[in-house]
Each structure stands twice: as structure tokens, then as C-alpha cells.
Amino acid sequence: MIKIKRDYEKPSKDDGYRILVDRLWPRGVSKNEARIDLWLKEISPSNELRKWLSHDVEKWNEFKKRYHKELKNGKKLYRK
Q1: Domain residue spans in the chain?
Q2: Angle at 17 between CA 14 and CA 22, to 5 degrees
Q3: Is the dihedral of CA 67, 71, 72, 73 positive or negative?
Q4: pLDDT value, residue 78
Q5: Per residue in 20-58, pLDDT tens?
Q6: How far is the C-alpha of 76 from the C-alpha of 43, rounded, in Å?
């Protein structure tokens, strides 16, 4: 099962393997505090897409479409 949790939420013992998918490390959170097992910044949304979203919930559905398109067209990380 995959659970989504904001990076500023405190880790819990029920979290399991923790993966951070973001280009930026959460401001003010130490690596020890975050207890992140894997940081996949390479597959996170582009800076342009993140700025376009600008935390606007009305743009969320369009953001998902654009992010999936980025992953499909521009990310070749695991196609070696």
C-alpha cells in the first residue's frame, strides 16, 4: 500500500519505507528528523510545473495531467 504524507508531517512508526519525491529538501527539517529512506528528486515535477501550480488547489487536476506527461516524455531514469 502506498500512502501520501506531507513532508512537514512528523514521521510515525506506521509509515514504512519513506520516499521523498521533491526537488527541494523541506525547509527547516533535518535529515534525521525527516527519516527519509530515499530521496527521488529526479522524478519530481519540474521547477516550471511546481511554480505554475503555486499551491492552487483549483489547478490540481491539470497539474496531474502535466506531471504525468513530464514523466512519460522527459524522464528516462529507469529506461537504461
Answers
A1: 1-44, 45-80
A2: 115
A3: positive
A4: 46
A5: 999 899 999 999 999 999 999 989 999 899 999 999 999
A6: 9
Q: Please tell me the distance from the alpha carbon of residue 44 to that of residue 74, in angstroms, as a whole number.
A: 11
User: b or e along 12-36 (b: 16 or more beta carbons within 10 Å of the residue's beta carbon)?
Assistant: eeeeeeeebeeeeeeeeeeeeebeb
- Give the per-residue pLDDT at 74: 73
What does pTM read for this prediction?
0.74
Residue 26's nearest CA partner among 7, 5, 43 is 7
pLDDT tens column, 60-75: 999 999 999 999 887 5
Distance of alpha carbon 39 from alpha carbon 80, whole angstroms? 20
Which residues on adjacent β-strands are paired with residue 20? 39
Predicted local confidence at residue 75, as pLDDT: 55
- Are the beta carbons of 8 and 15 closer than 8 angstroms? no
